[in-house]
Structures
1.
Amino acid sequence: MTDAVKGPASYFPSIEAKYGRPITEWLELIRTSPLTKHTELVNWLKTEHGLGHGHANALVAHARAEGLK
């Protein structure tokens, strides 16, 4: 029996399917961005890369939890 993925990572399959890029690329974009605040990064992903709010928020939350920003 496997545990269901919870938290921000639960969005990853739909992010990859919808936007056609692997999560590692999104996390690298966040890591290399000069922006540091959560809201700034979410808004940047939405405006510059066309992500929806939930997907952008999940990526930033995961990146920050992993210590990327």
Note: The first helix runs from residue 12 to 19.
2.
Amino acid sequence: MMGSTAARRLNINNINPHVKAAKYAVRGELAVKSEEYRAYLQRGLTDLPFSQVISANIGNPQQLDQKPITFFRQVLSLLENPALLNYEDVLLSQLGYKPDVLERARWLLSKVGSVGAYSASNGAPAIRQSIADFLERRDGFPANQADIYLSAGASSGVNTLLHILCANEKSGILVPIPQYPLYTASLSVLNAKCVEYHLDESRNWGTDVKVMKEAYEKATSEGIDVRAIVIINPGNPTGASLPEEDIRAVIEFAREERLVIIADEVYQTNVFIGEFISFKRMLRQMQKETPGAYDYVELASLHSVSKGMVGECGHRGGYFELVNFDPEVQAEIYKFVSIMLCSPVIGQCLVELMVNPPKPGEPSYALYKQEYDGIFNGLRERATALHKAFEQMEGVECGSPQGSMYLFPTITLPPKATEAAAAEGRTADEFYCMRLLKATGVCVVPGSGFGQKDGSLHFRTTFLAPGTEWVGSIIKFHKEFMDTYR
């Protein structure tokens, strides 16, 4: 690669400094190194101490062999190539398509015309209505399709909301620590303030309103205009699923301090312990219980096809719903999403399939249920196996798997390991994760990439990869690492 020269208009010192300041650990140095190893192995070279790379650093299910849901992909195939519908007999008798697949494809085509054409900027109206119907079934309260905005995955929705919220460098957003680094990186690019509040690891990474208030009051005393609070439920990287009392407490806090709630709910189907309770349901319930008190609590909740049992990250489909927002603000949000024209229409169609899957009694239901349950049970089994492995490892502590796709264990490393890390200019958790990658081919993310309390060390790993051999390699590596630096 050619270096920077005076002949180039752009160099590393004159590009947007806020982009340079942003950090995104899940695709950082470890991920880059893991891809180098993957390419090396693909060239047939065999001198590494492992034969495959396990990308446990990112929630990318289908890269790790999670199979697509048949109904979803069959419908998408017809949307991409509608001429196939002229061969109905072949589809039904020879290719395993069911009548409801063809019916759904025809219905979606009648609503979007072509997946190669732009839709309305906030998404095809019929798809927004299908989402509204899903939300009403899920929560037991009405939803209005006019308040729903389809996006290119939840990340695009977060980007839209933060652009609207952050007016200047004094604008602050309360963000949970540890958190998915999309939030800190986006706020860095916007030159806005990330106001950290720490989750309570001793309570399965629960929220503590006292901690939130302390963070809020400290920020406001420093002149920061705190405007919103982010909640990730179920949690990333922690996997925690919030109980009703925590959700109620957050909504009450938001009411008291006039904060917008951003509820990142993309893991809502990945719950192993307890149940998923949406912020929309709880807010509407509180409005019903105390009429008038919560009518101006603004909520934006997000969902995506990338996670859950769908795992269609590459199709970039998602949505957010606005509750209690000022109509004039919503008009500006519509204008903002219009600048990008619309989200991918094939992704929009996939969102419709996610929120409106085959129902009992329909031809595709039996296979859909089998595939869905198989993915869910497989995730839970692998999470349990990985958790049991951590229990065997010296100095590693990890709560029971609760949900999402991740475990976030605490690791206690010997002082010599910390010294060796410092000699390399790394934090101790970065040092550990890099050594793990070089020894086993397993790529995880150091806890410092998500934020953690001073003096504590963690790493985040997905449990998406098939099989258990890689889990055994982590156990072996950890013992050897501890023995080396004891």
Note: The longest strand covers residues 225-232.
3.
Amino acid sequence: MKSKINWILKNLHLFISLSIVVPTAIIYGSPSILTKYLNIQVNTVDFSNMLKAIMCLYLGISIVWILGIWKTQYWKIATQLNILFMLTLAIGRVLSMSMDGFPTGGYIFGIIAEFVLGFYSIFQFKKYSRNE
């Protein structure tokens, strides 16, 4: 029982990231959902194409996280990717907020969640890399 709890705790950052990123990917790839819930109008094929590419990028990164959860030899790379993914998204949002203004509440939540997950992933990486 204790080893299962340790396994969950070790992978918690990846589980949380998956639970946020996979639905976000699907939302980004679904123009009708974007229009309805996020004040984003998809009115060109190029914009739709860009959003589908982002959707697949998010899903591809999620596959690496899943590999990191189930195959211990991929845990470090999955965690490093999580750090890079979350912190670069957060930094991009900070850059946009400083240049473009404040976005809607969902994106404000996003920046907070990305910073928290990025720094939590650094903590996890340091904690569990030391033990191996």
Note: The chain has a mean pLDDT of 92.
